[in-house]
Design goal:
The structure is a homodimer.
Chain A (H helix, E strand, L loop, with lengths): L6 H5 L9 H8 L5 E2 L11 H11 L11 H11 L6 E4 L1 H13 L5 E5 L4 H9 L3 E5 L8 H11 L3 E5 L11 H10 L5 E5 L21 E6 L12 E4 L2 H7 L10 H12 L1 H24 L3 E2 L6 E5 L4 H13 L2 E2 L11 E5 L3 H18 L3
Helix pairs in contact in A: 3-10, 4-10, 5-6, 7-8, 11-13, 12-13
Keywords (chains A, B): Aminotransferase, Pyridoxal phosphate, Transferase
Protein name (chains A, B): Pyridoxal phosphate-dependent aminotransferase
Pfam family, one (chains A, B): Aminotran_1_2
């Protein structure tokens, strides 16, 4: 008789939120020529960060500092907030897992949007919570619907991304602040700002870690170009931040990644240059889409979501035709957003390839 | 009103299993001169691993492969076992957390030894389990006591380390196999073999992932010298290994660490040289202890646990005197093992320093 697993684990599906591009490459037996599906930042990290990681690699025999002290102090200075309001973790994915574990037990209602970040839902399900998903409105997450659902369900936790993935849409700071202000007593808004550095000024409400109704998620995976390093951080009330210490994997951070993130944060010029390159790439992505009769949506991120002008089947067919042509790309999961495909900002070479192969893909799929 | 945390989280202490040396350095305001407290491998990883990590750092903008495919295939070939019996994770600490989560709910009894690896207990407590700790026998974990406790408590999970940390003791393979064979139906033995590469031949029972009563934990943190990279792996029955996919952080692995571990595994000559260096260092550590009237215990690990010939207070005083003299060292937590201090294998320079400062520390503490 095999070991006894928990009833919750037995009930969980074996599916995973995302299939990695390497898995697809192995299945296809062929590498992708352009990697535009995972919203990775092809422009890469600051050369200072690469150098800092390489310098740290020889010292990898040491465990990383479990307090992430140096990075936390640098982040505190960068944001002008106390260090005790910051929790560094192994990417936002890990921090979301810890956050859900702090709040969710079997049956706990949790609010998000249908089609929003599936890894959050994965964690909620993994701790037995019940996801209440409200619809998008105008291809954007809907703050009013989130607030209504929080009130209706009595959920202690809601997820809201600004800017949004997978649509690239965003709300101005005052709208998001109104959402934060509307969070009921005893509830918490998880505000995922993974893409915030790409967004126009005035998108992020001021950081206010005295407010215990919101926790902000930030990352080095997107604008800082370090997805493979696994460095994210949460900003919140010190009591909530301290609670992570009760459950987190204290020695979970890669030591070179800590050094790399510190160097990346210090190189704000590189960050600004990256943001500018991403803007150019978004413009070009949008132009390529239009040239092919497709409708790019506005984006405050490092990707452009493109309305393929049909239903989910049409978008899936175009997606498959691009993948067949060695362009790694993903798409929103939930209707009506699944009429779109999502393309990450690429280097000029990546986008040249897209400009060449998108028409071929569309021709292969045929008219709408 | 702050957000509502789970009753379990509210009940957890804020203490953590280990304080990092960097924290101590900040408190002291002074760096350690020798880092011999965390069983890190000062001889470091294979130069091939360092080169592989450095080469991968520029590509850190990509997420790591969530399947850890290449590393898993290499481990499968190395051990002669099917890849579906291997789960790679962010160090054994993370894998222990996942394992406990698979099996433990509030009130679940779990068996370990009093004074064994505290991070395992931390995870058990973190999921609400109840630790039943059996005593060491002759400074070693006691297989019979583990089996008796499994039967008495009906626990679905037990932890056993071979070789043991913090004592350095070990059991021969046939004794461990008898333990595995005695695990009751529906229960699982977590066999932590973090230090196995340092142990004499005949310490590890044959790998047998058809057996669903045992899961083996291995790591690149110790003999492979990559503690800061966070790469561990579990070997177990494919059904159990597959269950990790329901709850793990799929994109949690650092991409450079994946590449480094792959290169480290390929350089078995470096591993053999490291093991030989560690043997020399153990011999020297033991000689230094004896020269100072202390009694080194036999060790199959990269550390030597040293009987200070008194009680816990005396060992703690010697520990404090060493730390004051800039030697980072730790000690067992639980009596009567807390009569000892634990020193990791150091480079010749580290041990020269220890040879110089241990007599000073002992003189400062005074006679037993």
């Amino acid at each position: 008789m095999p070991p006894r697993l928990t009833p919750l684990v037995e009930s969980l599906p074996a599916t995973v939120p995302f299939v990695g591009p390497e898995t697809q490459e192995r299945t296809r037996g062929r590498a992708f020529a352009a990697r535009l599906g995972a919203n990775e930042n092809v422009f890469g990290p600051s050369p200072d960060a690469v150098a800092a990681m390489a310098a740290a690699d020889a010292g990898i025999w040491c465990y990383g500092d479990p307090e992430n002290h140096d990075l936390k102090m640098a982040l505190a200075a960068h944001h002008g907030i106390p260090p005790e309001t910051i929790m560094v973790g192994e990417g936002i994915d890990a921090l979301l897992g810890y956050l859900v574990r702090l709040i969710v037990t079997p049956g706990t209602p949790v609010v998000t949007s249908a089609g929003a970040y599936p890894t959050f839902n994965y964690h909620v399900a993994g701790f037995g919570g019940t996801v209440h998903a409200v619809p998008y409105r105008d291809d954007a997450e809907d703050p009013d619907a989130i607030l209504n659902a929080l009130r209706d369900t009595g959920a202690p936790l809601a997820y809201f991304a600004n800017p949004d993935n997978p649509m690239g849409s965003w709300h101005p700071a005052d709208r998001v602040q109104a959402l934060i202000d509307g969070v009921p007593e005893n509830a918490l808004l998880c505000l995922d700002e993974a893409y915030i550095e790409f967004a126009p000024a005035g998108t992020a409400p001021p950081l206010d870690p005295d407010n215990d109704r919101v926790i902000r998620m930030r990352t080095f995976s997107k604008a800082y170009g370090m997805a493979g390093a696994r460095v994210g951080y949460a900003i919140g009330h010190p009591d909530l931040i301290a609670a992570f210490n009760k459950i987190r994997n204290h020695f979970g951070m890669n030591r070179s990644a800590q050094a790399g993130a510190l160097a990346a944060l210090a190189d704000q010029d590189w960050l600004a240059a990256t943001v500018s390159r991403v803007e150019d790439a978004r413009d070009r992505l949008s132009a390529i889409a239009r040239e092919n009769g497709l409708a790019p949506l506005p984006s405050a991120t490092n990707f452009v979501t493109i309305d393929c002008g049909g239903d989910g089947d049409r978008a899936r067919a175009i997606l498959a035709a691009l993948i067949e042509r060695d362009i790694f790309v993903r798409m929103p999961f939930v209707a009506p957003q699944d009429r779109c495909i999502r393309l990450s900002a690429g280097r000029p070479d990546d986008l040249d390839l897209l400009a060449e192969r998108l028409p071929e893909a569309l021709a292969a799929v045929g008219p709408a």
